[in-house]
Amino acid sequence: MHWMILAIVGFCLAINLDATAAHVGLACSSCHHQGGSASEPASLSNRAGGCVVCHRGHERIFDHAMGQRSGEKQFVQRSYGRYDSGFWEKNCTSCHLKGCLDCHGEGGLSKPTVAACQRCHNGYYTGWDYSGRTPREDNMRYQRGIAVNGGTFLKMLPDVHYSAGMTCGACHSMSSLANGKKSSKGCRDCHKPSLKIPEHRISAHLQRLECYACHSAWAPQEYGTFFLRFRDVRMKDDFDLTAGPNAEYLRSAYLKKQDAPPLGVNAVGRISPIRPMFIAYYTDIMTARNNGPENTLLAAEWRAYFPHTVQRGGVTCEGCHDNPTRFLLEPESRRIYDLKKDGMGLESFWLQRGQRVSNGSFMDAARYLRMSSKSPAYTKAYVEKWKTFLNRVEK
User: Fold this and answer.
1) What is the mean pLDDT of residues 14-18?
2) Which element (helix H / strand E) includes 108?
3) Distance (Å, rounded) from C-alpha 117 to C-alpha 169?
4) Cβ neighbour number for residue 156 with a 10 Å cutoff
5) Are 212 and 306 in contact (CB under 8 A)?
6) Nearest to 157 by CA among 369, 19, 350, 307
7) H or E segment at 389?
């Protein structure tokens, strides 16, 4: 019993040496009170019983996306889980929320920094892009440069808010996350669209588009996510891919891009960036080597989302109005990847047929044609936009 008391006292002293002002001087029993877990007051196992004495209601964060990851589990169940019932436990448990200190325990009790958030929000998932990082190709030959969160990355243009020093908490407050919301602020809570900008004077843009549909400069995109399963791990020696969390699997991608994201319709009916989450393939190497199937397409799903790559400018008019591929309406004349001949089970990654948006929908062809008609209003706005470019050059 004495060792437990000493451990608790040591923990309290260590925290208080580098704690936020709100916690300095608190008695140990303020957090390590009876009725909760004496040694783990911030743990998921007791719903942060020591923290919620003061931070009431914040335990509800364990009931939502960061704690439950229900969307990811459902995806695995209808895709890779059909072939391996243990896939989730083998490959997807590294970012489970275990307690308040996962985010607030960086160097003592503190508000989460961007780096703390990116311990889980990294790689292909929203978070790395905010500070201008995107995953490299999977082959080991490309794994060079600085490593962050255990992985190397391509250096891209960071979000303007990151460059200005804003942390994730500026828009994602603890109370909003505890209430099951993705954020506490939207773009227009801080920014009023300037009518000096030609695009802002087009009412359809402000009514039907998310701001980040135009202002996301780039987005990481992964087309064809392969999980290769090795019953005999010695066979992995034939593949020069980065190791994953489980010795039985390796992951690779058919194609990675970092340009302007495709567009679709989100759950509230507004035009939004979308990306593959995931176009998922499965190969059992042992079976494939015995003339069995390989590259089995398990799902072709996209998600509407917010790339954290905001810049002041946006795409030119033809970036949307003359770009059917961006809406997954790629004409055959523009097709350069022949997926059928590659045994991929789809005609094209940028063709809606055979794919779906899990939290929204694709834009239908008729709506795209109406949007892309060259009306007098479009022509007027197009000319005005190019005049702004020419004026800048002349100056």
Assistant:
1) 45
2) none
3) 9
4) 18
5) yes
6) 307
7) helix 376-394
- Beta bridge partners, 251, equal 227
In angstroms, rounded to a whole number, what is the distance separating the alpha carbons of residues 14 and 283? 49
Per-residue pLDDT at 391 exceeds 70: yes
Distance between CA atoms of residues 289 and 235, nearest Å = 11
Token duo for residue 13: 């002293």
Q: Is there a contact between 37 and 46 (Cβ–Cβ < 8 Å)?
A: yes
How many CB atoms are located within 10 Å of the residue 297 CB?
17
Structure token pair of residue 119 = 């311990």
| Cβ 330 vs Cβ 348: under 8 Å | yes
Q: Which of 369, 368, 345 is nearest to 355 (CA)?
A: 345
Report the candidate in 270, 338, 272 with the shortest Cα–Cα distance to residue 303. 272
- Tokens 């925290």 correspond to 15
| CB distance 77 to 71 below 8 Å | no
Three-class SS of residue 280?
A: strand
| Mean pLDDT rounded to a whole number for the chain | 89
Residue with tokens 């828009």: 171
* Cross-strand partners of 151: 148
CB contact burial 123-149 (16+ within 10 A = b; e otherwise):
bbbbbbbbbbbbbbebeeeeeeeeebe
Q: Is 354 left (phi over 0), alpha (psi -120 to 50) or beta?
A: left
Structure tokens, 163: 């460059």
Which range has the worst mean pLDDT, 14-28, 104-118, 226-240?
Answer: 14-28
